[in-house]
Specification:
alpha+beta, two-stranded antiparallel sheet, 3 helices, 6 strands, globular
């Protein structure tokens, strides 16, 4: 089964900037690499849906990982900008997102923004060899 597009380790702060993965046994089927540019997807969201970008840039969400050996958790926005408004972080990972705890009144708009962002992420995929 392919993994959904995601950023790794959103429950860490800071997020590791470099990861090396080692293949021990090559699969006979599958193994397709799919990459996307989360910063470009966030730029498109801001340009085409500024109100949705604002929600993902303002609402704090929780990311969590737990195993027998560790419990890691971090709260941040899905899209983070600096004081100049430049996009500096994108955190998306449906497997480590904790339940969203945003105000009930904005929950439908938040989910709509999240789904729109993920649609843009999927549309900007560049498939590997």
């Amino acid at each position: 089964m392919p993994l959904s597009l995601h950023t790794d380790n959103p429950y860490r702060d800071p997020v590791p900037t470099l990861q090396l993965l080692h293949c021990l046994v090559q699969a006979q089927e599958g193994g397709v690499t799919a990459l996307t540019d989360g910063f470009e997807a966030a730029r498109i969201l801001r340009e085409e849906y500024p109100e949705k970008f604002a929600l993902l840039n303002e609402q704090i969400v929780r990311f969590r990982f737990a195993s027998e050996d560790a419990e890691l958790e971090h709260q941040d926005t899905m899209i983070t900008t600096n004081t100049r408004g430049e996009i500096i972080k994108v955190r998306i990972n449906n497997r480590s997102s904790a339940p969203f705890q945003v105000d009930f009144d904005i929950m439908p708009a938040f989910y709509d923004a999240y789904q729109t962002f993920m649609r843009i992420v999927q549309e900007t995929v560049a498939n590997g060899p």
